[in-house]
Design goal:
single chain, alpha/beta, Rossmann fold, 2 domains, eight-stranded mixed β-sheet
């Protein structure tokens, strides 16, 4: 039986609109009690637009005055860990936008804090929850596709100089990284959720066109525990924008091309001879749902209703964040990096910048 949860949003920028739309679609499962923003004018305008009764200038004030079940955390990345820690200390579950932290050190701090709290932390990786991705993971787990052999993952987006004029963008201290950290992370998180544990990464990163501290392009070759190999490309300098994933299994190629969210119509399956039944299996559950926040928010509140750890909890998110750290470490040291190699004491444990970008 679904419960009704008291919810607040912290940070009322553009991404908060996506959360609000999904929360409204959730109906009486949630009651929006308050929003928070350091800019009170913006907070008040957001609250008025969406009919939220109260606004606060700080998370501390919110937690002191409201009884809450879940906080949706939509601030710039540098605030994610400090605010999530405040919420965990108050026993409140946090649904945090990507990236959940700026470093593996911060991830481990969150993991320790969660152990002492009745609340949990879940990260927004909504593309895992689109019906096609769920179906693909099931078919792969059932062995219907055979062994995974090869994959490619590309996030080719375009962000101009005006985009990076916002002070917190394109910096290590505020954003934690470039397109590897803040843009391509959605696609390769989905790839990791499908292919399972990664083993080694060989990468490079470059600053080709934008006057920022971080990279504006990165690419990597990845090997997985299963033996599969993959390429990953992340860019914010690509005028024809697209997001692409392709998985070559023994018995079929499965691929998707979209931009910021997919439906089943964006996916295709190409079986080898003798495995045409895969097409009918794929088509049995056709859906027009978009892989947006709504699918993951539904799964989030299903888990909260059952008093379970919500999906894409800290352990899952840490795996993706370790992949990010390893990509930067490999790119900046010109060496392969293995899973589990970046530990406390390693420069890339405390910062994705690690030993420093070559262009600096």
């Amino acid at each position: 039986m679904n419960r009704t949860h008291r919810v607040a949003i912290v940070g009322t920028g553009a991404i908060a609109e996506a959360h609000m739309t999904a929360l409204r679609a959730a109906g009486d499962r949630v009651i929006l009690v308050a929003v928070v923003d350091v800019d009170m004018d913006r907070a008040s305008a957001f609250a008025a637009k969406w009919g939220v009764p109260r606004s606060y200038a700080s998370t501390r004030a919110l937690l002191d005055r409201e009884i809450l079940d879940v906080v949706h955390l939509c601030t710039p990345p540098r605030h994610h860990t400090p605010i999530a820690l405040e919420c965990l200390a108050a026993g409140v579950t946090v649904f945090v936008e990507k990236p959940p932290s700026l470093s593996l050190a911060e991830m481990d701090e969150l993991i320790e804090a969660e152990r002492a709290s009745t609340g949990h932390v879940a990260t927004v990786f909504q593309h895992r929850f689109g019906p096609a991705a769920v179906r693909l993971r099931r078919l792969a787990a059932d062995g219907r596709l055979g062994r995974p052999l090869l994959a490619s993952c590309a996030t080719l987006w375009y962000r101009d100089d005006d985009y990076f004029a916002v002070p917190w963008r394109g910096t290590w201290d505020s954003e934690g990284g470039g397109p590897t950290m803040g843009h391509g992370i959605h696609q390769f998180d989905l790839m990791l959720s499908i292919l399972g544990p990664w083993r080694e990464i060989r990468a490079l990163a470059a600053r080709r066109a934008r006057d920022v501290q971080t990279e504006d392009v990165s690419m990597a070759v990845v090997t997985f525990a299963s033996g599969a190999v993959a390429t990953v490309v992340n860019s914010v300098v690509s005028p024809r924008e697209t997001s692409m994933l392709r998985f070559d299994y023994e018995y079929a190629t499965v691929e998707v091309e979209h931009l910021y969210g997919y439906t089943d119509a964006d996916w295709s399956v190409h079986p080898v001879a003798g495995h045409g039944d895969l097409l009918s299996l794929w088509d049995e559950e056709k859906s027009d749902l978009v892989s947006g926040h709504g699918c993951q928010i539904e799964a989030l509140y299903d888990a909260v209703d059952r008093d379970e750890v919500p999906p894409v909890g800290l352990a899952d998110a840490r795996n993706t964040m370790e992949f990010v750290a390893a990509l930067y470490a490999s790119a900046f040291t010109a060496k392969p990096v293995s899973s589990g190699e970046i530990i406390p004491g390693d420069p890339f444990y405390k910062s994705m910048e690690g030993t420093g970008a070559p262009w600096q």
